[in-house]
Fold this protein.
Amino acid sequence: MNQTQLTSEAVDQLNTVDIRSYEDFLPDLAILANENDISTLWIPPSASQAIYNRIPAEKRLVSSKFQYLI
Amino acid sequence: MMMMISTIIVYLILLFGFVTSQQTNFSCDIRPNQANTTEKLQNLRVYLANNNLFAYVIFSEDEHQSEYVQLYDERRAWITGFLGSAGTAVVTLDNAALWTDGRYWTQAEDELDCQNWYLMRSGQFGVPSITDWLLSQANGTSPYNRVGVATQFVSSGWWSSVNSALNTKNASLIEVPELIDSIWQPPDRPLPDANPVFVHELQYTGIIWEEKVKIISGLIQTKKADAYIVTALDDIAWLFSIRGSDIPYNPFFKVLDLFLFYIY
């Protein structure tokens, strides 16, 4: 996301979160998905085809999200 | 008796034909709210030709499959003139059509540029689905075997279903860069909103965000996965107990999906 959008209180609240730029998400996902120590990435059925395409089939788990929490 | 049966059959055929023609009536009733999309379609078709496509699909949703989007992301509204929040547009080299459901038919009749677009009343008898309409024009000959889609705007379920159908005619969906972005530029196009993102107080959330992450981490472990990818804007705002206003009338902010790892 664009970190400049965060208010100072929001910056403090998320100080342990690794925030990256919006445009880097899909390239970073492709890198992550191909790392050797990653065996399974779980995505919801509503995830975009762009996300789906970037996860190798053998590492892709498509399953409903935790509706009872959100 | 035979004459009566024949009469009934002829009547039913005439009735069926009348109903079908009424429901797929593409007559154009020009109204003052309809935008003229002729030049936009001409420009888009240049990109179809350059990408060797016979059709391109434009969705209402943003990268998170949100029904409600910021003005910057209203690509389907811009190319069609129809401002409703739900609908899918398909532009081919020769035609253009918008599918929307019964909630929006009256609005679409007012706003859709009917000189350039067919209004497909989704769910109405005799109206083809997007898949059937594409199939009726697709064949194994280039470019009629290639339908372009910007994959960040479509669910994997839609892609799988439509691509399988196209494959029966030796055609397929093709991942392409978003083509509307190439022809819709400032100053005509608004800039993306980047409004302040602020804390949603604990008195409203009832639980700190770190606790939510721990709970979901347990679910990731149950699934024997390494990470879960959160895609919906409302999910992300809930998870981190923060809110924004990038999306009109919605308390969300634009953030591309996030990785949520199982915490060992």
